[in-house]
Specification:
- By secondary structure, the protein is α/β, with parallel strands linked by helices.
- It has 3 domains: 2-57 and 205-272, FAD/NAD(P)-binding domain (3-Layer(bba) Sandwich), CATH 3.50.50; 59-202, 3-Layer(bba) Sandwich (FAD/NAD(P)-binding domain), CATH 3.50.50; 284-353, Alpha-Beta Plaits (2-Layer Sandwich).
- The chain is built from 9 helices and 19 strands.
- The strands form 7 sheets. A 5-stranded parallel beta sheet has the order 6-13-7-8-9. A 3-stranded antiparallel beta sheet has the order 1-2-3.
- β10 and β11 form a beta hairpin.
- α2 (77-86) packs parallel to α3 and α3 runs parallel beside α4 (146-157).
- The chain is elongated and about 85 Å long.
- It starts with a helix and ends with a helix.
- The relative contact order is 0.12.
């Protein structure tokens, strides 16, 4: 169980757990990150870590002002799950409305897990009360995977009803009934019910932008963290030594989050189990004799790989962080910043050889 897993983690002497702590500052680089945490008591703690995994998750949207949501007769799927766990659901008619607050101008994305959650909860309702009428109003049923698709067909066999509604004419929740326009037949239908359940999306946490700035990692327009490459590096950031998993990346179900967690831990192991790390051969270097310390290269570097040395009044490249993008070389007014192997005389020599 989860409680046993938590107990196992907290009892390990080589694992430090900071409950309720907030990340204040991050410095360093892969294999040698310096993080500062602030605990609930106000005390700050500094730790040296080799890698960082962003697993902040996401939170369900509270649909204030949508479909008459009141937390009593109009509730969310999360609130329904809580009632099901407590065994306090006594209803003869339930209507579930999908895509509430999602696939809209404010949140244009599909949360992916809402349909799975609705079908699962509908089956649990039928299991507790086979005579209950459960109706799901949807725009598109997104049941990823063969097992979830089978769960959808099983629910139909158990008596769960499904109807398509149009986004241009959404359902209206009234006292004791839900009215919607059935686009397939062109008629308006009323469904009697005593409970309405809204399927709302998972949204990014409010502190995600701040964390993005601290770690210097990108986010998308919905404030979910963006991986280095969706196919080739789905659990990596472009910043070496920083990984992500679960719903911090995009809404994920339990099995997906678990698989991504295992993948991220494996990626961390490939770094921590090495005696040394090999840096790229194509990195930038700054000529200390001609650098004037204008710091223009620091502003352009997307990886934070350049530091200013106030005692020498020059800039210096951290070759571990450098990715050889060349932004500094193209910006430097004194041509002090260069990519190794790509100096002007080297490139001209290659052209002359042709």
């Amino acid at each position: 169980s989860i409680s046993e897993l938590i107990q196992s983690v907290t009892n390990r002497p080589n694992i430090s757990v900071y409950v309720g702590a907030q990340l204040q500052d991050v410095g360093g680089y892969i294999g040698n990150y310096e993080v500062t945490l602030r605990r609930d008591s106000g005390e700050t703690v500094q730790e040296n870590v080799g890698c960082i995994v962003v697993a902040t998750g996401a939170v369900p949207l509270v649909p204030e002002g949508l479909y008459g949501y009141d937390g009593k007769k109009v509730i969310t799927q999360m609130e329904l799950e809580k009632r099901l766990k407590e065994g306090s659901v006594e209803t003869k008619g339930v209507v579930m409305i999908q895509c509430v607050g999602a696939r809209s101008p404010e949140r244009p994305y599909c949360s992916r897990i809402c349909c799975q959650t609705a079908v699962k909860n509908a089956r649990l309702l039928k299991e507790q009360n086979p005579d209950a009428h459960v109706h799901i109003l949807y725009r598109d049923m997104q049941m990823y995977g063969t097992e979830n698709e089978q769960m959808l067909w099983d629910s139909r066999g158990e008596g769960v009803r499904y109807d398509v509604y149009s986004a241009e004419q959404p359902p209206s929740v009234e006292e004791g009934k839900v009215r919607f326009y059935r686009s397939l037949t062109g008629e308006t239908v009323e469904i009697p019910c005593d409970l309405v359940v809204l399927s709302t999306p998972l949204i990014a946490r409010e502190d995600a932008p701040g964390l993005s700035q601290l770690l210097r990692v990108p986010m998308d327009q919905n404030h979910f963290f963006m991986e280095a490459h969706a196919k080739l590096r789905p659990l990596d950031f472009a910043t070496d030594g920083v990984f992500l998993c679960g719903s911090a990346r995009y809404p994920a179900n339990v099995e997906e989050a678990r698989s991504q967690g295992l993948g991220a831990s494996s990626r961390v192991a490939t770094i921590l189990f090495k005696d040394k790390l090999v840096v790229s051969a194509i990195v930038a270097e700054i000529d200390t004799k001609t650098c004037v310390g204008c710091m223009g290269c620091m502003d352009m570097c997307p990886y934070g790989a350049i530091d200013y040395l106030p005692e020498k009044l020059i800039c210096q490249v951290n070759t571990i962080l450098c990715k050889g993008c060349g932004c500094c070389a193209s910006t430097c007014p004194s041509q002090s910043a260069m990519l190794k192997g790509f100096k002007p005389e080297q490139i001209l020599a290659q052209i002359s050889a042709l």
